[in-house]
Amino acid sequence: MDIAKQCASHLLEIKAVKLSPSKPFTWASGLKSPIYCDNRKTLSYPEIRTFIKESLVQTIQTKFSEVEVIAGVATGAIAQGALVAEAMGLPFVYVRSEEKKHGMGNIVEGEIHPEQKVVVVEDLVSTGQSSLKAVETLRNMGCTVLGMTAIFTYNLPISQQRFEEAKCALYTLTDYHCMIEQAVRGKYIQEDEQKTLIDWRKDPNAWAAKFTQTV
């Protein structure tokens, strides 16, 4: 089994990813979604945690061999980024969503210098907005961001557009397409629910609106 399928199976197995096409979840943004992902759960499972760490390290070594610093995105990817940095023997920092309100007012915690080559580690990518905000922060500090790695992406069109516009390479261990395939194969959902999940990814807002009208 390749990394994408294996990672998707692990996330489904420990319910880090939950699928509910008929009773959707509500995200913090208010958007209704048939999928909910919390990759922090992987930290509680040593074998899966190690698999993810080693897979992220392999991705970075293959795609971003010039990396000098690993940066995690707060808060979900702080632990994942630190594990990766430790495994690679590299410095680690993490990027806050906004400047700290006290002390030094840091937005990046740890020591980093202009012109250093950085790879950003994320736990998941949804719309790409918060992930790319971290990239912008590092670039504004004079760092060279080689790209980003993440455990999972929803493959939303808006995210793909934003990463292209930001000229930031993104490599993930698994994605929404693979997740749905593994969910059907593992009988986490029925085959007739697959279309609903595919429709949501194409246009989440339209899907959510349609669902709201239906209920």
Question: What do these coordinates show?
Answer:
- The chain has eight helices and ten strands.
- It has 215 residues and is an alpha/beta fold.
- The chain has a single domain, classed as 3-Layer(aba) Sandwich (Rossmann fold).
- The longest helix has 18 residues, at 46-63.
- The mean pLDDT is 92.
Index terms:
six-stranded mixed sheet, 215 residues, alpha/beta, two-stranded antiparallel ribbon, 21% strand, Rossmann fold, single chain, 10 strands
Count every beta strand, where a strand is a DSSP E run of 2 or more residues.
10
C-alpha end-to-end distance: 40 Å
State the CATH topology: Rossmann fold
Average predicted confidence as pLDDT: 92
Please estimate the helix content.
40-55%
Strand content: 15-25%
Instruction: Return the string of H and E elements.
Output: HEEEEHEHEEEHEHEHHH
- Poorly predicted regions are none
Q: What is the CATH first-level class name?
A: Alpha Beta
Widest sheet: strand ordering: 7-6-5-8-9-10
What structural category arises from helix and sheet content?
A: alpha/beta
Q: What is the name of the CATH architecture?
A: 3-Layer(aba) Sandwich
Radius of gyration: 18 Å
Put simply, the count of helices is 8
Main beta sheet: 6 strands, mixed
Compute the number of structural domains. Answer: 1
